[in-house]
Structure formats: structure tokens, C-alpha cells
């Protein structure tokens, strides 16, 4: 089960819109990646799923295009993400 703590370790914040009745959204801020608030989702779970989907797509693009992009231009540092996610997963190898 995903918790706010695990999401926070990956730099993902799930927050209500202001005013809260307008829905939920997500943002990602790490040393290497920034995505401003994206929303209006009906629930925190929907916002979290969308954030994780976006993050996985970014990782896939980094792996696919990594050999062609200089490290200073990458939008994602995969090793930092891998470490953050493994620290929050008791079953990680």
C-alpha cells in the first residue's frame, strides 16, 4: 500500500486544490526533478496514480533516450529515484 511517507520519499506531494472542494493534485520536487502542481483529480488516490504514471514514463524515457542525452540535460537521475523507492520498500532487494 502506498503511503504519503513513501510518496514523499520519491518527492511526490498529494495536496488538495485551494479551495479543497475543487479536487486534488500532485507535484514532484527533488534535487533533479521538478513538476509543478498538476490537478484537479477527484481523489488523492487518483492524483497519486497519475503522479506515479508520469514518473514511470519519465524513467522509461530516460532509459530509452539516456545514451543520447548528456547527463547535465537529463530530467531524471534514476539512481536517486531507485534508492528513494527501495528505502521505502521492505521487500526491495
Strands of the widest sheet, in order across it, are: 1-2-3
Ends: how far apart? 18 Å
Inertia-based shape: globular
Given the structure, what is the number of helices? 3
Cα gyration radius (Å):
14 Å
Beta-strand percentage range: 15-25%
Q: In percent, how helical is the residue content?
A: 40-55%
Query: What order do the SSEs take from the amino end to the carboxyl end, as H and E?
Result: HEEEHH
What can be said about the biggest beta sheet?
3 strands, antiparallel
Low-confidence stretches: none
Backbone structural class: alpha+beta
| Strand segment tally | 3
Q: What is the mean pLDDT? A: 76
What does this entry look like structurally?
This protein is of the alpha+beta class and 93 residues long. 41% of the residues lie in helices and 20% in strands. The protein contains three helices and three strands; from the N terminus they run H-E-E-E-H-H. It has a three-stranded antiparallel β-sheet with strand order 1-2-3. The chain is globular and about 35 Å long.
Summary tags:
41% helix; 93 residues; three-stranded antiparallel β-sheet; alpha+beta
In short:
The chain has helices at 4-9, 44-65, 78-87, and strands spanning 12-16, 24-29, 34-41. With 93 residues, it is α+β, with helices and mostly antiparallel strands. The protein has a 3-stranded antiparallel β-sheet.
Amino acid at each position: 500500500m502506498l503511503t504519503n511517507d513513501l510518496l514523499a520519499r520519491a518527492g511526490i506531494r498529494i495536496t488538495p486544490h485551494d479551495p479543497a472542494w475543487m479536487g486534488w493534485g500532485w507535484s514532484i520536487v527533488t534535487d533533479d526533478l521538478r513538476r509543478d502542481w498538476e490537478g484537479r483529480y477527484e481523489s488523492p488516490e487518483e492524483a497519486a496514480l497519475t503522479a506515479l504514471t508520469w514518473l514511470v514514463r519519465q524513467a522509461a524515457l530516460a532509459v530509452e533516450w539516456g545514451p543520447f542525452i548528456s547527463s547535465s540535460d537529463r530530467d531524471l537521475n534514476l539512481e536517486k529515484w531507485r534508492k528513494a523507492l527501495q528505502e521505502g520498500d521492505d521487500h526491495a532487494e
